[in-house]
């Protein structure tokens, strides 16, 4: 996958990592970047087309599908993270609505366009998908669920030529992590790491120094081997055969 001359859609494109992904896609020669935002957005580059897009709103998702002529790369970046302690079911539902069902709804809606282009979906997840951060457990649950979604869609849509990637990022210096005392990378450097990983065809992208230390053990680890073994069941290959 080469970003040059592609059409890219980024959700949550108005600030933080989403905004940096828009700029990085432009820098790498994307011919068109659809910037999904909840509030109106203006951009000086003529290649950027703003889309009003709350990923929890099925009507707005459908309107976006109708406005996008063709699409090569869908980046599900929009996300929420709120402090909680799992006592409030509404907090869990709020995280799932955006981080899981938003990603699911966008992916399903753009599947026909991505099938036509033999394109890619990039789901921006977190290291919290692999091990929960107990200060934000509802967020961690939603990212773990979105990681499982990513792995299943990867297996289900491989035959259509659509690749599905997970970004397992460490801390990023954005509004989301403002109060957290963790190592953080700039959104610009993480955006570079994500699109570089996509261009290299990495299924799991570890785009920053704190996540990169996980990459080797993840790619050669038991969980990845099991994912491949289970995915092979779709092709009628028996496990262990
Ligand atoms: N920051 C970190 O440390 C970190 C680490 C690992 C992964 N991530 C992931 O990186 C992604 C981007 O986060 P960020 O750090 O850039 O956070 P951010 O600065 O808080 O930005 C979040 C973005 O998501 C948008 N958004 C929230 N709910 C939405 C909805 N229902 N529909 C559409 N857009 C919505 C926001 O739009 P509004 O401006 O309208 O609210 C905003 O553009 C998220 O998926 C996050 O989980 C972040």
Blueprint of the fold:
Blueprint: E1 7-11, H1 16-27, E2 32-37, E3 48-52, H2 58-67, E4 73-76, H3 89-117, E5 120-124, H4 137-157, E6 163-167, H5 187-199, E7 204-205, H6 209-219, H7 222-232
Parallel strand pairs: 1-2, 1-4, 2-3, 4-5, 5-6, 6-7
Helix pairs in contact: 1-5, 2-3, 3-4
Bound molecules: NADP nicotinamide-adenine-dinucleotide phosphate (NAP).
NADP nicotinamide-adenine-dinucleotide phosphate binds next to helix 1 and helix 3.
List keywords for this structure.
alpha/beta, 241 residues, 7 strands, Rossmann fold, binds NADP nicotinamide-adenine-dinucleotide phosphate, 7-stranded parallel sheet, 13% strand, 7 helices
Describe it.
The protein is an alpha/beta fold and 241 residues long. The chain has one domain: 3-Layer(aba) Sandwich (Rossmann fold). The protein contains seven helices and seven strands, in the order βαββαβαβαβαβαα. The chain has helices at 16-27, 58-67, 89-117, 137-157, 187-199, 209-219, 222-232; strands spanning 7-11, 32-37, 48-52, 73-76, 120-124, 163-167, 204-205. A seven-stranded parallel β-sheet has the order 3-2-1-4-5-6-7, sandwiched between helices. Helix 1 (16-27) crosses helix 5 (187-199), helix 2 (58-67) packs parallel to helix 3 and helix 3 packs parallel to helix 4. The longest helix is centred in the middle third of the chain and has 29 residues, at 89-117. It starts with 6 loop residues before the first strand and ends in a 9-residue tail after the last helix. The protein binds NADP nicotinamide-adenine-dinucleotide phosphate.
């Amino acid at each position: 996958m080469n970003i040059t001359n592609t059409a890219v859609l980024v959700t949550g494109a108005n600030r933080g990592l989403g905004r940096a992904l828009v700029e990085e896609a432009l820098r790498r020669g994307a011919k068109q970047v659809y910037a999904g935002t909840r509030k109106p957005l203006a951009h000086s580059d003529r290649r950027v087309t703003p889309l009003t897009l709350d990923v929890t709103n099925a009507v707005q998702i459908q309107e976006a599908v109708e406005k996008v002529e063709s699409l090569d790369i869908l980046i599900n970046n929009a996300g929420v993270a709120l402090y909680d302690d799992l006592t409030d079911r509404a907090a869990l539902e709020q995280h799932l609505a955006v981080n899981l069902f938003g990603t699911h709804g966008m992916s399903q809606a753009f599947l026909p366009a991505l099938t036509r282009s033999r394109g890619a979906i990039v789901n921006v997840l977190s290291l919290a998908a692999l091990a929960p951060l107990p200060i934000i457990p509802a967020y961690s649950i939603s990212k773990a669920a979105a990681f499982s979604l990513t792995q299943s869609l990867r297996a289900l849509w491989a035959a259509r030529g659509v690749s599905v990637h997970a970004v397992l990022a460490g801390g990023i210096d954005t509004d989301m992590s403002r109060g957290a005392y963790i190592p953080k990378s700039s959104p610009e450097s993480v955006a570079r790491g994500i699109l570089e990983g996509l261009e290299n065809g990495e299924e799991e992208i570890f785009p920053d120094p704190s996540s990169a230390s996980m990459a080797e053990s993840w790619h050669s680890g038991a969980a990845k081997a099991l994912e491949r073994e289970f995915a092979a069941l779709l092709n009628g290959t028996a496990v262990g055969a």
